Amino acid sequence: MTNEINTLATALYVKIDDLLKAAPDLAPWRPEIGFTPRLSDAELVTLSVMQALLGFTSEARWLRHARTHLTHLFRYLPKQPGYNKRLRAAASLITHVLRALSIDTTLWTDDVWVIDSTPVECGRSKETVRRSDLAGWAEYGYCASHSRYFWGLRLHLVATLGGLPVGFALTGAKADERDTLIAIFTADPRLVADRPGQTLIADKNYFGAGFEARLAEAGLPLLRPTRKGEATRSGARLFKPLRQTVESINQTLKGQLDLERHGGRTPAGVTVRILQRLLALTAAIWHNDKTGTPIHRSLTAYDH
């Protein structure tokens, strides 16, 4: 295999198609009587990954581009409303594909995970905040890394040092990062049970005796910077270079995959667009891993 967008798309389609053949129940529900979709579920998810990798934040513009340049890969392309509706219905399938690709990489067995959260802005004007369907989930929050307030959500990410997403959650902007991390592990107990002694590296906001005790009970030692007034913690020399690693993973999602330009206006719309970008990152890492690319998180070969 070579590292370019068409080859990745072909490999990804085959992977998803095989997954659906082995587990047909993963496909979005549709009535037994009705029209058979002309664009398969595997093609739909592959199309959405290509959209994210090529940097199209507008679905309508993406489909116009696809009709001009991608008819050799997709014999049929839906109109924008149909594409949007089917993509939202495929959120569960995208989540399963995410995990299947992650497990099928050498990075999955890494014994160190980095943890962080990053803002996902959903609106700026007061009128948007007042009228948005996201009100009640999205809320005002503060991003200390960039010294700014925002209205929206937070993406909480557990990843390997190579940037492979292992676990994630999308919450309101004020959700406690520690509670969210515990919830990620509680929702997927095998993630922790299958790898005792996994080391977690986080920033200084992941603190608290009770919080660290819960992680210790699960066999998850936590390394983080020393907070003011605390005794010096072990592993302090690791945090300066690894902090840049965490920030660079977030920057890949924001700078190259347009995380904050998702365009979602409803909870379902925002959720599937975030999943779409996480899957695009995972698919690129998976393909780079299979082709022996030294930098697993490099997207350069797929953005044109």
Written account of the structure:
The structure is a single chain. The chain is of the alpha/beta class. It contains eleven helices and six strands. The protein has a domain of 152 residues: Nucleotidyltransferase, domain 5. Strands 1, 2, 3, 4, 5 and 6 form a six-stranded mixed β-sheet that branches. The longest helix is centred in the C-terminal third of the chain and has 25 residues. The radius of gyration is 20 Å and the shape is globular.
Helix-strand layout with pairing:
Elements: H1 5-22, H2 41-53, H3 59-69, H4 80-89, H5 91-103, E1 112-123, H6 126-131, E2 139-143, E3 148-160, E4 165-172, H7 177-187, H8 189-193, E5 199-201, H9 209-217, E6 222-223, H10 236-256, H11 267-291
Parallel strand pairs: 1-5, 5-6
Antiparallel strand pairs: 1-3, 2-3, 3-4
Stated plainly, the CATH topology of the domain at 110-261 is called Nucleotidyltransferase, domain 5
Counting DSSP E segments of at least 2 residues, the number of strands comes to: 6
Briefly note the structural class of the backbone.
Answer: alpha/beta
Proper CATH architecture of the domain at 110-261: 2-Layer Sandwich
What is the overall number of helices?
11
Annotation keywords:
about 300 residues, alpha/beta, Nucleotidyltransferase, domain 5, 6-stranded mixed β-sheet, 11 helices, 6 strands, about 45% helix
Provide a compact summary of the structure.
The chain is of the alpha/beta class and 304 residues long. Helix content is 47%, strand content 14%. It is built from 11 helices and 6 strands.
